[in-house]
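ARCHIVE CARD
SHELF: 3
SLOT: left
DATA:
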Amino acid sequence: MRTGLEILMDDPRRWLEGAAVGLVANPTTVNRRLVHAVDLLHAHPDVELRTLFGPEHGIRGAAQAMEHVADATDPTTGLREVSLYGPTFESLSPTPDQLADVDVLLFDIQDVGARYYTYAATMALCMKVAAQCDVEVVVLDRPNPIGGVQVEGGGLESGLENFCALYPVPQRHGMTVGELARLYDDAFGIGCKLQVVACEGWERSRYFEDTDLPWVMPSPNMPTVDTAVVYPGMCLLEGTNISEARGTTRPFELFGAPFIDSDRLIAELNGFGLSGVLFRAASFEPTFEKFAGRRCNGAQIHVVDRPSFRSYDTGLAIVVAIKRLYPDDFAWRTEMYEYRDDVPAIDLLTGSPAVREAIDDGASLETVLSIANRGTEIFDGGRDQALLY
């Protein structure tokens, strides 16, 4: 298969002739030979590349999660690098002044198929400013690495919008970033001048390993496709005091805390009858983030059947189980999360305080899942029209 970047580079004049170009990029913005789009575009005689824009983690991907990134100069090309992940919510969008010398804004970043992942939010905010400035947006599409068939999760209540959930899109949306752009532009009313350069040869049932593309880590804690498969559910642990194993070699697949008994937890999880997944007792010692330098006990997720595995339900089941077993030790995160400190982080992740309240009240997993998987009407109504494959 071929990505939007590779198709664009066949004949850049088709989309970019005579235009001053800006590029939103990160380490995944490469062709199959791992040559970065910055170098490809800067060297091309028919392209006038003016400005680079970097999302969370930066254009080179060195910054950790929620670590602010400063403006810089690209060391290879000398081009200006504008950070779209600064200290305030306003710094997440380019300003009209930063787009003043840009006619076309290219977006080319590998997404992982979960609404929390902030790159699609960066794209949406760029689209909003581009609409105000009459700048065309061209999205160079890439495959959804966890497939485009399975959809999991719920919506987003008004007032809970945040950088990991700008719109009521399910936690696992089953769309490519180009399809999301079309959904945002139409169903959610951004209304910019949008083109999507679609991939060639991708089928919705295909996971990333089914392509012939090289996997480049989209962020420091997304080392493998296996990580992406579990992420739509396991990112929920960011809203708790349970370690999602940042600071280990298997983030989001491992999880635990010093106060957990692994065997007891696995017995509780097995009682839920979750499909497509097995849990293995595991201990780990994170090098940073939660419980850095301390032994955590818990488990590793082993997905044994991807088509039947439901990541979001599994993540909720893990939270329910740990809260049930360790009510005095378990806690919700109270620190600022994705630029908001007025509501619990878990509400921003699930999209509804009712999920947290049900877990706190000791509701059954079935009740929690019922609450957590509702509220996607706009998404449901607009998704089919936005699909490209």
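SLOT: right
DATA:
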Amino acid sequence: MPNPTTAKRKSERELVVTRTFDAPAHIVFEAWTRSELFKLWWPPKSMGMHLRSCEMDVRVGGGYRLEFGHDAANTMAFFGKYTEVTPPSRLVWTNDESADGPVTTVTFEEKDGKTLVVLHELYPSNDALDANIGAADGLTEQFGQLDDLLATLGASA
């Protein structure tokens, strides 16, 4: 794999996922903040997850709600608030669907037309991270899907 995603547990409560993308930071940032782009790469395809709705009000105090499921009767929602939005370099949001949800910080650092993305999740406890550590595998796939999307956006950038 020429551009691997790395996922490391940094402490009892912290998970850090990194990947460098072959696209400028403003385009990568848009893929994280525009719902029509986000929904194209966020659901891990191998898990058969379908993103039924994607609402994103990307501003400080704004919220997001992602609803997954095969049909309306069997859905799972992820939601929270944006606490920091600094285009095109930083996003911070809460994960409010559970008391064990982390605070997620994503930074976008551009160098020579490529963007290093660092996703940092800070969980409220060691047990909360232990219960969610499998999400790192999904993020690896998701970042690969983002890479594929960015390759298609490059032509129009």
